[in-house]
Design a protein that fits this description.
27% of the residues lie in helices and 23% in strands. With 700 residues, it is α+β, with helices and mostly antiparallel strands. It folds into three domains: 27-207, 5'-nuclease (Rossmann fold), CATH 3.40.50; 231-317 and 329-417, OB fold (Dihydrolipoamide Acetyltransferase, E2P), CATH 2.40.50.690; 491-700, Nucleic acid-binding proteins (OB fold (Dihydrolipoamide Acetyltransferase, E2P), Beta Barrel).
Length: 700
Amino acid sequence: MLASKTFYRKTKGGHIYKVVREHYLRDDIWCGSEACEKCGRRKKEILLDEENPGVKSTLYPHPYYLIFDTNIVLNQINILEEDILCNVIIPQTVLEEVRHRSSNVYKKLKELISDPKRKFYVFINEHHKDTFIERKPRETPNDKNDRAIRAVAKWYNSHLSAQKLDIKVILLTDDEDNKNKAAEDGIPVSTMYDYVSSLENAGFLVDKLSRKEYILDGEGRAPLFPCHLPPAQIHEGIKNGKLIQGTFLASRENFLEGSVNCEAMEKFILVQGREGLNRAIDGDLVALELLPESEWSAPSDIILQDETEDDPGDVIDDEKILAEAKPVVAQEKQPTGKIVGIIRRKWRQYCGILQRSALKENTRHLFVPAERKIPKVRIETRQAESLSTQRIIVAIDSWPRNARYPLGHFVRALGTIGDKDTENEVLLLEHDVPHSRFSEEVSSFLPQLPWIITEDVKLEENLGQLDSKMLELKFTLFPLALLTYADVIVHRLLAVCVGADATYPDLLDKKKSHALCHNLNYRNRMAQYAGRASVALNTHLFFRNKVQEEEGYILFVRKNALQILIPKFGLEGILYLSKKGETSSVTFVYDEEEHTQSWGNITFRSFDKVIVQLSLDRSNVQHEKLVFKLVKPEIPGFSIPCAGESMEVSETKEDPAPTATEEPEDNMATGTKRRTQDNAEEPKSSTDGNKGKKKRKKKY
């Protein structure tokens, strides 16, 4: 059967030509069910079960197959990856739409389809004569695709019932309009939440549901954030120069501050306050409105972290601290703007810990990401008791205007907090370092374990051959070790220029070369960060059950803290002089012009030497912190007595006072920043057997 579409096009020269598109339809495309006799059984291609089509559900006691619409696949891919869901029909329409909208989800869906145990069957509905539909006049592409999916579900039900088979086909959709139209057509239909809630022994799946909306306490109040501009208005604003496009970069030192990197501007554009940030998350491509020069500002000197223990609700009072700041000197001002829209989200799955609600029966909790640039996320889970000691992964679903934090859902648990293997996996995931297992095909080339050197291989007889091979390897691998992949590309281009090699299309494609260079730089940067974070993790392991005094140097003087560098370990941390909600008998005076902190006759300046005490705060099992306390210079009521260079402490030591915590610059999992990794000395454990004894004091 042949379907054709004819239309006319006009060329730039004014000529009109006729275009005819032919679409071939077939009547022999198999439905994929083992129970079907009408399509002709193909044993090698049987995918959908006859005896146990679907998992037991209180909504659908009869046997059934499932069909998902596109949004279910895009938003609920974490549910689909669970082994409990099998015998699923994926229409070609859904597969193609997912491919165009999300390459990451498409890859995961293809893996599910290729797994014979999961029984995901792709039905080519676009070329089946009974399920092919044409677009109606004024019908949107989305409505046309929804109608095509409903046509597949309706055909399957009639196809199976005509053979008197007691198997229903259930359409799962979260689109209210699509659901109502399916019900009108007599198609069994349900939302993802209703279906998952009806499954036996599948309560854990409810936690993994992606929910775009929650019932929020603040829905009756005024919105906390400005409304984002629609895409058409953003496009028009960028086109006429009223808006600027750029990448948002969140600050690690102040969660109410960030900057936007715009190609049209030489300098980064500063954004401050919740209204200025307007729900942007680190890495998002945003539309920015540049403020008048009279409203420009400068980065705040305050180090501000969102460290509330309980969920503060949808109320914003943190900006009072920024509002109390003194007027900015004109010379320090920099271009400032406010984010008015999101062009493209760059959300990913985030590693972190669960911050349980103070109410025991509450199912709504806060997720604290390991990366300080990412805001806390509200999730709903009934597994809070078991997850509170685990490193978990959470995905962000949405961020409504009336919610202080974005909304997300639980994906999976990684392992116990503090476990070395778990923390290493967090580092790899947070820095996007590929670490998946090799495929069976690759592993097949390895020798079978246990592998040993056979007796017929004797070292003495092969020394001469080994020496020659080593020399050959040196001359072969030494140049290759120096040539990075970027160098290889450059050498290929040079070889083409001098006629020593042939070219190929991708080599001369500027866009592909730009994408390649971007990926090389990204991978190199992430690998460096992961290396630093790994060193920081092992430094934390070194400081467990230890209190150690070390020399440090002041790098920066902030309004409420000192940033200290410990050269011995290459660590940079924060020593707080004052913290929000805490009172102290010692009040420091901050000089904004000189950037100094003073108390009495003691003044802290950049590059001044100090002695600090380092210890690991393990009072919070969910998030260990390396604590900095001032030892010298001595300040009564603030500094602590000198106890010695190093000493061991027991597991049951009292919680250290929250005088200072380390800056989480580069370690996404543990909060440690590695300042100079290449030249830093690695921490060495004591082996003198004098554990628990005080060592020789170091002169200040």
